[in-house]
Each structure stands twice: as C-alpha cells, then as structure tokens.
Amino acid sequence: MTRIGSSSLDVLPLALGGNVFGWTADRDTSFEILDAFHAGGGDFIDTADGYSAWVPGHSGGESETIIGEWLATRKPSNVVVATKVSQHPDFKGLSAANVRAAAEASLKRLGVDTIDLYYAHFDDVSVPLEETVAAFGDLVADGLVRYTAVSNYSAARIREWVGYAQAAGSALPVAIQPHYNLVHRGDVEETIVPVAEEFGLSLVPYYALASGFLTGKYRTTDAAGQSSPRAGGAAKYATAQGLAIVDTLEQIGRGHEASIAATALAWLRAKPTVAAPIASASRVEQVADLLASTRIDLTADEIARLDAVSEWSPAKV
Asked: Which of 96, 185, 218, 283 is 20 to 30 A removed from 229 (C-alpha atoms)?
C-alpha cells in the first residue's frame, strides 16, 4: 500500500482510470472491470465529471454515474474515488460557485456523501486562483470533499495554490496529476517533481501507458493506421526511440515474467514522488495485467536501463 501525500488515503499503488466507462466500455463491461480490479486488491478509482462528454450523444458525467451504480450495488469497502472539476459542459471553469455546484453534482452521480480526492482538472486563468483555492477549502470544511488536488497545473501555479491555502489556513493539496510516462518525461521531471518534493505532494500520473503505446501493441511506425479510438494518440510515440523503449520493456519484463505494460507501470511507480499511476482497461481481460504491475519491483539497474533508453534533453535555462 502507498500513502497519497500527507493524506490518510492508503491505496494499492495503481489507480483504475474511469475515462473509458461509458465510452469504450459499456455499463456491463465497466462493472466487470471494476469487479475484477477490486477482487484483485485494487481500491483506487480515478474519474472526472467531464467523462465522457466528447462521445456523441453524451452530456458528461457518464463515468461517474457508472461508478456510482457499481458502488451502490457492490458496496465495496475501503475504495478511494477521485474525481475532477472544470470540464463538464454544464460546469465549466473554476469559479467558486461552479466548483460548489459541480461537486454537488458529482456527489449525486457517485452516490456518496464525500469525495475522497477532488482535483481541479485544468487551470482556469479567467478566475482568480485565490477564489478557486478558497472554494476547494470550503468543500473540505463543509465535509463534501476529504482531500484536494490539482491536475495539469504548472509548477508556478501549484506553488501559488499552496501559498494561498497556507495563508488562509485552508486545505492543502495532497496530489498532482500530470501527464507522465516513459515517452513523456521532460517537463514533469524538470518542474513538477521538484514542487511535489518541496510540498510533500504525490504524483498520480495519467496516460501512464501513453494511450496504449506502452502496452507493446504498436511495434511499427504505422500506428496511425490502427482502428482503436486511442490509436491516434499512440501514433506519435511510434518513433525509433519509442520502439526502443518498448523493446527494452519487453526484455526487462521477461525477467519478471511480466508484460510490457506491467513493466512500464512498475518503472513509473518507482520514480520519485509517484504514488499510483493511472491505467484504464476496456476489457476485463486487461485488468490482471495492470494489477501485476503493483507486484513488480524493478532493480536499480533495470530502472537505469529504462531511464537511459527514454532519455530526454533538459530545457536550456
């Protein structure tokens, strides 16, 4: 188990991504995935109020609704649910009134009294940051949210958030959710990790498997020709270096009797400040492989090999 930042949230070091629920996984399939994840020891579920508004005919909140129905029927114990605000079509942005209304809507869809971990999904520069921070603090004070967090924020804005919260004596964030994986390291390791270390925040990275590229599904540079809804996102990683990363993951994984995907997640889990990578499954058969990553402890030499093959050039100061 791992502790998320300074919170009391102890979770298996893997978050199940809920972005596919109601999108590439229908309700029944989503229930099967959630059942398998929980049966395998998984207890951390990540979603957002905007999932999956991008699907034709959807209005947002579909993922939260499915998770809420699963929670109501299964009544699992000790499950941590994280969700986010700012992207639902009816609750855009991070004004104080919107944050409150969106949280109340998420609580209703999830069927819970309190949101365990509540993220500001994307920075909203149209609203004074002090107003947003105060709104999140009020949610904690009023018992609607246990802990707060930020997603897709710059290092400078995270520092500002912490400063406002400290000055007001309100809830401090406990986690950061950045885009971070073996083929997308630079900005996170240069700027976000130092902030996380400074303030005792945990990273809960999304796109941990690079839209499926780090599963080994795409082994040539013509990934764009794949028919999967996420293949386009994976195509940009199918470079010479990207394929070398996948080859190295495969080689190291053999020594642990582990898949490419599980090994990629194990590398991410081993990085400083990372508490739990987020990975999603569209089929129940994929869940065991994701859970296997929590039982893989890469050696220092193996981590160094993956660091070297995925090396990036730091920005010039």
From this structure: 185
Residue 26 has phi, psi (to 5 degrees) of -75, 180
Q: In the prediction, which pLDDT does 317 show?
A: 46
The amino acid sitting at 231 is A
Interval 245-266: pLDDT, tens: 999 999 999 999 999 999 999 9
Whether the pLDDT of residue 12 is over 80: the answer is yes
- Two tokens, residue 240: 């010479």
How do strand 10-11 and strand 2-3 relate by DSSP bridges? antiparallel
Confidence at residue 223, expressed as pLDDT on a 0 to 100 scale: 55
pLDDT at 313 over 80: no
Which residue, 171, 169, 123, 170, is CA-closest to 6?
171
For position 185, what pLDDT does the model report? 96
Q: What is the pTM of this model?
A: 0.95
Residue 218 confidence (pLDDT):
85
Q: Tokens 């299964």 label which residue?
A: 74
The secondary structure of the chain, three-state, reads: CEECCCCCCEECCCEEECCCECCCECHHHHHHHHHHHHHCCCCEEECCCCCCCCCCCCCCCHHHHHHHHHHHHHCCCCCEEEEEEEEECCEECCCHHHHHHHHHHHHHHHCCCCEEEEEECCCCCCCCHHHHHHHHHHHHHCCCEEEEEEECCCHHHHHHHHHHHHHHCCCCEEEEECECECCECHHHHHHHHHHHHHHCCEECCECCCHHHHHHCCCCCCCHHHCCCCCHHHHHCCCCHHHHHHHHHHHHHHHHCCCCHHHHHHHHHHCCCCECCCEECCCCHHHHHHHHHHHHCCCCHHHHHHHHHHCCCCCCCC
How many C-alpha atoms does 307 have within 13 Å on its Cβ side?
A: 11
d(CA 160, CA 164): 6
pLDDT, tens digit, for every residue of 187-240? 999 999 999 999 999 999 999 999 999 999 887 776 555 555 555 678 889 999
